[in-house]
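Reopening this ticket.

The earlier resolution said the output was attached, but the attachment link was broken on my side. Pasting everything inline this time so it's all in one place.
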Amino acid sequence: MHSIHNRDVRVSSLSAHFEPVENCVVHSDDVTVADDVSYTSSSMSSDLESMKPSNIHVFSSSSTLHGFNHIFALHHSSLRRFAWTVAFLTSLSILLYQSSNRAIYYLSYPHVTRLDEVAAGNLTFPAVTICNLNEFQFSKITKNDMYHVGELLGFLDKNYALCCNTIVPERQTLNFLNIQRSSFRHFNPRGTFSMKEFYERVGHNLSDFLLACNYRGRFCNADNFTTVYTRYGKCYTFNSGVKQPPLKTLKGGVDNGLELLLDTQQNEYMPVWKETDEITIEAGFKVQIHVQSEPPFIHELGFGISPGFQTLVSTQEQRITFLPNPWGKCRNGFDKSEHYHFPNYSISACRISCETLYVYLHCNCRMIHMPGKERYCTPEEYKTCADKALDFLVMTDDQLCVCETPCEVIRYNLEMSTLQLPSTQASSYLAYKYQVSEDYVRKNFAKLNIFFEALNYETIEQKVAYEIPGLFGDIGGQMGLFIGASILTILELVDYFYEVVKDRTWGRKLRKNTDRSPTREEANNKTVSVMVREQAIFPVITNLFLGVVCCLYIYIILVVYKCCNVPHILTTESGS
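Inline output:
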């Protein structure tokens, strides 16, 4: 009984300390729902703020940028963070300096020149243009010719009187001119005088001055030559490619080239009483070696050979490749509207076209060597306008007729040597063979040999010295050396700036909507709504943005790679 009583006392004692559940009332004025939600929201907001991707500490802790995490590490001392800041900024400054140097060097568009020797199985023999320095054969000038061109050639004045009486000409020349002059008072000239017909009739004929022709040991003749008109009048081009395909050479050496024996015909040279553009004071031939696609510009680019000598010309083909703008100044392309007279662009074609246009604009005519369909100048227009116009183009220093170098050029490097012709023992033989005197042989005969020194050609090619891949490689190397960054690090920075912008715009609106104190149910609904929006909208936009950035980055890489691998110039082909 005693134990039972004690147990009842303990139970009643414990019961006295606790009230029934019905008596437990929660007073609303002690803890409000709003305060509870506000506290919970404030705590969550603080935690979320510190975990936002836009937070610099979050970014620095995960960035691959070397040293960046030490600058914003809160557990480091201020002195240590300052030291890391100085080190990072110093490395960044050096990076910017080196990168700017590389960029400046790239924008200077440097180039290098590559030289190479290429062996060939065969080579196209060049075109060879030959002109006698004397334009007109004196014996072929008629009375009508003298009436029209006597003043142009310096024989007559404007009154048809003999010019330059202080000079004593040869008796034969004087007699010829007096005979022509004596009948001028009663001479009835032809109605039309054609300079084209005059040059064709009075110019030197190939059959008259070409005594012998051999190519690779085989005889050649006038059929292998094409008539062409230059500043020297009627000229001839061997292997022009017009009548037949260009000839090939299979071996080097003098026996595998062209050999010509020429007669200067000094007995047909015009007497010189006065210096004019149409009268020469030299004797011999002018020769130009050029590619078939290029017209001869022999008065500027030709070399001379003299009578009484054998001239040996050893040549080597050079294929030169220049770079267009901005690395160089060559012309890559051909505008037929500007140089429609020729099928291909070259400096010679450009110069001839420009001179033709200049003379036509100033004289309303063209000279005999100029292409086109305009009328030919008269002898009077030659003297008063056309010759002076060409002389002005030579003397002037402005930009008239300055032609750009084509990006693809074929030139022929020349090495010349001479031998006396004929020898003492051979003069009588040559005089007997061609039915002339020995003195005539010494004063008029000239021999020309043109050949390849070896069956190879030289390539001179300009190449871009510094391209975009090299620039990116150098800058990338500097980035890795100084700050440990790469292209992916740049994408990290882009992603971080996106998070900052997103937080400053959309995040601010979201925070404004959560500033008022909602009920528990509203708080729960809005929290769920915000979480759904954060989880549904932001990741989608983030992924979309990053996808666009990645696609843009890949596109830039492909474009740069394509641009860097597109050839700036066409590859030179054999025989072009």
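Reporter confirms the inline version is readable. The longest helix spans residues 520-565. The domain at 138-202 is CATH 1.10.3590.10 (acid-sensing ion channel 1 fold).
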